Amino acid sequence: MLINLDGVSKAFGNYDVLRDISFGVPKGSFTILVGPSGCGKSTLLRMIAGIEDPTGGTISIAGRVVNDVEPKHRDIAMVFQNYALYPHMTVAQNMGFSLTMRATPKAEIAAAVARAADILGLTPLLDRKPSELSGGQRQRVAMGRAIVREPVAFLFDEPLSNLDAQLRGQMRAEIRALHRRLGATSIYVTHDQVEAMTMADQIVVLRAGRIEQIGAPLDLYDRPANSFVASFIGSPG
Ligand code: ADP
Ligand code: MG
């Protein structure tokens, strides 16, 4: 497993947001965390990224327990729903920013940005500002910013929720193709069952801070563990 969670819990004050969360993310897999709004998906992703500390349990990345490792030393990249692009920077500057912060040589940054732009079809847009881009293009820049870091894993938090239905369908296919092309390992959070069923190798179904079931899309569809999973995934079962 490239990423492993063992008995992870999280409380804010005396409110238990997540309890006893254990699952593994195989290298190269596209794992989706799905569940209703408020069930703890973002909190879980933030703990894997290191932005939030677990109350209990252990999180390992590439065989190393990272509970006490700072986010910037976990070597994973996060893509958010609101893009979080810097409005005053160009596309190229946005994409290269994290490397600039690491004092990577300029020529190396330019090469990494050019490579990512080529993969994402952003080459003609490198000198534009975010305000001059469409929603889909901004989402590609956000992915480009993650790609240039060559992280061991990508974490996505509902990256398509601000896009219209048609673009969302197109971007699902793009993200999946990108994942394959990069040979990436990805954890993707969504509350959208269709997204989960069409994109995932492995689905982790969450409800109210607990795991209801883990399995491939067809497993969940054919053999839902309980009526919550059945109704959430949309099978008659
Ligand atoms: P999801 O992403 O599945 O919609 P979240 O992980 O954002 O859910 O939130 C899960 C629960 O934890 C919610 O009830 C939310 O209000 C609560 N929560 C999230 N972050 C904090 C925080 N920093 N302090 C207190 N409660 C929080
Ligand atoms: Mg969320």
Describe this structure in words.
This is sn-glycerol-3-phosphate ABC transporter ATP-binding protein UgpC. The protein has 237 residues and is of the alpha/beta class. Helix content is 36%, strand content 26%. A six-stranded mixed β-sheet has the order 6-7-8-3-9-10, sandwiched between helices. A four-stranded antiparallel β-sheet has the order 2-1-4-5, with helices on one face. The longest helix has 18 residues. Adenosine-5'-diphosphate binds next to helix 1.
| β-strand number | 10
Describe the global form: globular
Classify the secondary structure makeup into a structural class. Answer: alpha/beta
> Count the helices. How many?
8
Question: Which quaternary structure do these chains form?
Answer: single chain
Protein name: sn-glycerol-3-phosphate ABC transporter ATP-binding protein UgpC
Keywords: ATP-binding, Nucleotide-binding, Transport
Organism: Pseudotabrizicola algicola
GO cellular component, one term: ATP-binding cassette (ABC) transporter complex, substrate-binding subunit-containing
Give the structure's gist in a few sentences:
Keywords: ATP-binding, Nucleotide-binding, Transport. The protein has helices spanning 41-49, 91-101, 106-120, 135-147, 165-182, 193-199, 217-222, 227-233, and strands at 3-12, 15-25, 30-34, 56-61, 64-65, 76-80, 153-157, 186-190, 202-207, 210-215.
Helix and strand topology:
Blueprint: E1 3-12, E2 15-25, E3 30-34, H1 41-49, E4 56-61, E5 64-65, E6 76-80, H2 91-101, H3 106-120, H4 135-147, E7 153-157, H5 165-182, E8 186-190, H6 193-199, E9 202-207, E10 210-215, H7 217-222, H8 227-233
Parallel strand pairs: 3-8, 3-9, 6-7, 7-8
Antiparallel strand pairs: 1-2, 1-4, 4-5, 9-10
Helix pairs in contact: 2-3, 2-4, 3-4
